[in-house]
Amino acid sequence: MRTRVFLLLLIAVAIVVFFAARLVSNDYVFFAGYTVLQFVVLATAWNILGGYTGYVNFGSAAFFALGAYATVFMHKLYPLPLPLLIVIGAAVSGIVGLGMGYLTLRLRGAFFAIATLALAVVLQTLVVNWDFVGGSRGAYIIRPNEIALIGPYIQYLFLLMLALAVIALAIARGIERSQLGYGFATIRDDELAAEASGVPTLRLKLIATTLSGALMGMAGAPFPYYIGYLQPSSAFGLEYAVNSIAMPMIGGTTSWVGPLIGAILLGSLQQIATVTISSAVNLLIVGLLLVGFVIIAPNGIVGLVQGWIRGAK
Amino acid sequence: MGLSFDLLINAVIAGILLGGFYTAVTIGVSISFGILDIVNIAHPAFIILGSYIAYIVNARLGIDPIAVSIIMLPVFYLLGAGVYQVYYESFERRGQESLRGLSFFFGLLFVTEVMLILVFGVDYRYVEAPYIGPSWRLGVMDFPLRMLVPCITALALFAALELFLSYTFIGRAIAAVAQDQLALRLMGASPVRIKRIAFGISIATASVAGALLIIIQPVEPSVGREYIGRVFAICVLGGLGSLPGTVIGAMLLGILESFTATFYGPSWAPAVAFGVLLLTLAFRPAGLLGR
Amino acid sequence: MAGALLEVTGLSKRFGGFVALDGIDLNVAAGERVGLIGPNGSGKSTLVNCICGTLVNESGSVRFDGETVDGLLTHERTRRGMARSFQLPRPFTTLTVADNLRVPLLYTVNARPGHALSPSELDARCAELLQLVALADKARHLPRDLTQVEMRKLELARAMAAEPKLLIADESMAGLSQSEVDDIVGLLIRLNERGITIILIEHIMRAVMKFSQRLIVLVSGKKIADGVPDAVIRDPEVERAYLGQ
């Protein structure tokens, strides 16, 4: 299936999902759905770097929060429409991803991973100390109640996140089928042999880091409008770091389907768990699942399914 | 800035004392990462675990936290050996260290933090001991005992480990396993067993480091994450595989952080470690004393 | 040697205190078939790594095809016409055998100015290479399904796929049977007849003697002999250092 056809199919599915959600009379569907879709974007973004090239990013929260705080910053300066803020969020996070990659990607993957962890802590420190965006007190974003053509504002946010999910999935699948996808896979499999075969590994890794960061920033940009009151502890929250990794690892890292499955499954599970149990227990379950899958089923759900199919043949 | 001599000299002293403590925090990773090449980013989680154990025993039974940590050494050692066994079976043997191994340790880090939140909540916990509070004054120089005692303990720990690695058979085997596994096998030692012992020792140091941590500052579950950057910054700065390098790196970072805290405010301290790490990786990845 | 394809001058490489290569001088003319031999640990693979840019040498210089390549990354050297196979095969484990060959075609051959292959040409080249190393029936398999011998052939085929001017084959024949060794030697000679300069690093003396027009001997990081194969193996120093073992 050509990527163009795939994209049209995704858009069609997205439209169906949106109108189906409107049929449900409870706005909660949109709030919960927004979170799940946000994870689809984050998981897909993480996987472009982690799954395709094998370089692990532990600081997804940092890129996500950068997008959110870019929005807060712009909001205090000069109000802009959300789609534009999304582009700005993508640009900011993309540039930071590029910069960090440039400094650390020439070394081992382990150093890159550690650097991403440290980046998250440092960015949080910077934001906590920066009063213009609210510092540790947090920042309020007053979101409008309604928007023309659609109705309740949350539906607009849901629609935007749906669009971002479509974009992220289309990009991921497009890469998989392209020359770039081959290049990424060789970096993951054997970077030395890749270089010897003519693959410009540093350049490709930088592309992956920038793209991954930009997509995460995109996911973060509408967040202040969704949540209304943004604190560093929620933007840099634990759930973003662990979910961005757990969802692709559990879903399966070798294809675009894995993060999607992981995000929908785990995202929905967590929505249910947060309401019924506590949010801390729910994160614990995600963490345990991550450790369990990494040990027992390293290729995730996609890998398990592929194994069953091959075994059944 | 109004640079007074008092302020300056006490910032240096605080930095050195802090650096001593950082040695204890990092020495475990010098073994697991520097020598065994295992990226155990969950090390700070074990340290925090040590802190909380010291807290419980100290609160219930009034025993000195450092004493608690020494009693707990064998438990932490066994924990480390167990974790290594899982790591070896699941990843090292299958040759899939990088992505999966990192995710495994990240998962451990995360699960530990969340479990501590569930059991203890997010309140800060602290211990009580006779040396927390008073300071030893020498002219204008101020040596808070709650920093001095951990510093001395840490350096003693370092000395003990350095002696162990240089003069005992197992210690030298550990240093050897990093360089030549075949030779080790020919000598009749099993590399896996040696690595397991080494990793066990590395986690055992976390027990002591945890006690020292909660003496120096109150602890809550997310404190561990601040230390990941510090620990690896020190390892890289000092040079991977060199224990003396760890001490030097720790001192340097301690002094840098102390100066930053004194002259710019303590909330900037976590950023220092990251800056150091990035600069070192960018300009001198082998570190100061690296192999 | 004027106009040599590969000129290595004074190349030295240390690992900490250990000197792996000590001032190596080496020239290879276009179209030559050079054999490189030496005991294990003598620095042969280190030399290859330094020539190709996988390792950075402390001193000395490498010139390829009239151009100094010092400081160039490995993939840039590959694109300029250097290719190597690895001593221990390093296939791309998640790609099929055919796709393994597609990578150098996409990233090396297609990256050269004026050379872009169309998708059908690419497929044809892939098939041709697979035929050459008798792996055509394993095209859609993953490398883990291959035997050791087949993996070495894949390793060689991948280097060939980059359409190099200079091919460095690093111990491609370990573990092969006599007839398989002869096959590979024949294949390399045919490649050479097409104009590809080849450096063969091997322990199997039969293959080396059959293949080489010139023989270089490396012992403990130093070049101790460089000349006509028959003369080199009779050199007493070579006998003492290597052949006598």
The average pLDDT value of chain B, as a whole number, equals: 86
Count of DSSP H/I helices of chain C: 9
Determine the structural class of chain B based on helices, strands and strand pairing.
mainly alpha
Level of helix content of chain C?
A: 25-40%
Major beta sheet summary of chain B: 2 strands, antiparallel
Summarize the main sheet of chain C. Answer: 6 strands, mixed
Report the β-strand fraction of chain C as a percent range: 15-25%
Please list the strands of the largest sheet of chain B in the order they lie side by side: 1-2
pLDDT < 50 runs, ≥5 residues of chain B = none
How many domain modules of chain B? 1
Shape of chain C: globular
Give the total of beta strands of chain B.
Answer: 2
Radius of gyration of chain B in whole Å, from Cα? 19 Å
| Topology order of chain C in helix (H) and strand (E) letters | EEEHEEHEHHHEHEHEEHH
Strand order of the largest sheet of chain C: 6-7-8-3-9-10
CATH topology of the domain at 6-92 and 162-243 in chain C: Rossmann fold
What is the structural class of chain C?
Answer: alpha/beta
Terminal Cα separation of chain C, in Å? 33 Å
Strands of chain C, count: 10
- The oligomerization state is heterotrimer
What spatial form of chain B do the alpha-carbon principal axes imply?
globular
Structure explained in plain terms:
- The complex is a heterotrimer of chains A (313), B (291) and C (245).
- Chain A has 313 residues and is mainly α.
- Chain A contains 15 helices and 4 strands.
- Chain A has one domain (3-237).
- In chain A, the strands form 2 sheets. Chain A has a two-stranded antiparallel ribbon with strand order 1-4. In chain A, strands 2-3 form a two-stranded antiparallel ribbon.
- In chain A, strand 2 and strand 3 (151-152) form a beta hairpin.
- The two termini of chain A are 24 Å apart.
- Chain B contains 12 helices and 2 strands.
- Chain B has a two-stranded antiparallel sheet.
- The longest helix of chain B is centred in the N-terminal third of the chain and has 31 residues, at 5-35.
- Chain B is globular, with a radius of gyration of 19 Å.
- In chain C, a hairpin with a 2-residue loop joins strand 4 (59-64) and strand 5.
- In chain C, helix 3 (97-109) packs parallel to helix 5 (148-161) and helix 4 (119-132) crosses helix 5.
- The mean pLDDT of chain C is 90.
- The A-C interface holds A 179, 182-183, 185-186, 188-190, 192-202, 254 and C 52-54, 73-75, 78-79, 83-84, 86, 90-95, 99, 102-104, 106-108, 111, 158-159, 161-162.
